[in-house]
Amino acid sequence: MQCVRVWSSLSRAAHPAAYRAAYRAAWTRTQSHAAAARLDLSGIYPPIATPFTAKEDVDYQKLEENLHRYAKIPFKGLVVQGSNGEYPYLTEEERVEVVRTVRRSLPTGKLLMAGSGCESTGATVRLTEKMAAAGADAVLVVTPCFYKGKMDSRALIHHFSKVADSSPVPVVLYSVPANTGLELPLDAVLQLSQHPNILGIKDSGGDITRIGLIVHKTKTQDFQVLAGSAGFLMAAYCVGAVGGVCALANVLGRELCELERLCVSGRWEEARVLQQRFIEPNAAVTRKLGVPALKQAMEWFGFHGGACRSPLQPLTEAETQQLRQDFSSNGWL
């Protein structure tokens, strides 16, 4: 045990301050690794949007009102400060305060997964610690991508390992090539799956053969795979995923939880019918029209979406009509 090694490697009498600091750090890592081994991620999570005021400040009142509505839906938990939360446009202080706000409102038993990814390893380590202190049960760490040409397996394994080594809470890898232009390589995922404080991966790439292979190759590890989109949720369940982090759950959360229930209970024909109705609206609020479309759809379904933070722009009239068509033609509006 790490804590035992600390006892033997430091003189408590000679270096009391150093001893206490090292012991606390080792104890935190040990506790985090134990949590990673028992935290069950299975279920549906909306990656919640961040409401803004007319002056583009975070609107915490509207955020809390959304949270009260989400509390009535059988989600496993919430993902906060993911891509749909517009985290690249928030300051570090705002990112942490949003997590703190969600923690205060989240019902007991619901998991809070907080996005803590930054471009540098050091910044990610520091923000991860702040997210844990703000109440996150786990952190979702996106691949650094600005220098994507140098983000090979060696660099990414080093990055995620350093973050997981020091994180007070379990780490979930996040591969979202549509936004980063970079897919977390399979060999890196397999090596990182062996880290005791890396719990799983949210894979938003949509390659079902890759998802199935990750599940297959990590079956001896306690490693959990989450689908990163409602568009391939049923297919991901078919190959062994345990749940999904789905933008569309911000709008059709109860219905996506129903799809989860059908898949888990093996009612595949009913699941297929429901899955097909999600494909077009999901594509509209993700790869086609993005976060502005998600926020517009939230308004139609009684949530606070509102405007995005600049430079993201509102939908055009033609885009709004197309969005409505994608929902209405599938029986959602």
Automatic annotation (TrEMBL):
Enzyme class: lyase
Database matches in SUPFAM superfamilies: Aldolase
Enzyme Commission number(s) from the entry: 4.1.3.16
A Pfam family this chain is assigned to: DHDPS
Keyword Magnesium appears in the UniProt entry: no
Transmembrane segments: none
Catalytic activity, reaction form: (4R)-4-hydroxy-2-oxoglutarate = glyoxylate + pyruvate; (4S)-4-hydroxy-2-oxoglutarate = glyoxylate + pyruvate
One GO term describing the cellular component: mitochondrion
GO molecular function, one term: (R,S)-4-hydroxy-2-oxoglutarate aldolase activity
InterPro entries attached to this UniProt entry: Aldolase_TIM, DapA-like, Schiff_base-form_aldolases_AS
GO terms for biological process, alphabetical: glyoxylate catabolic process
Binding site for pyruvate: 245
Active site: 174 (proton donor/acceptor), 202 (schiff-base intermediate with substrate)
Record's function text: Catalyzes the final step in the metabolic pathway of hydroxyproline.
Family designation: Belongs to the DapA family.
Identification of the protein by name: 4-hydroxy-2-oxoglutarate aldolase, mitochondrial
UniProt source species: Amphiprion percula
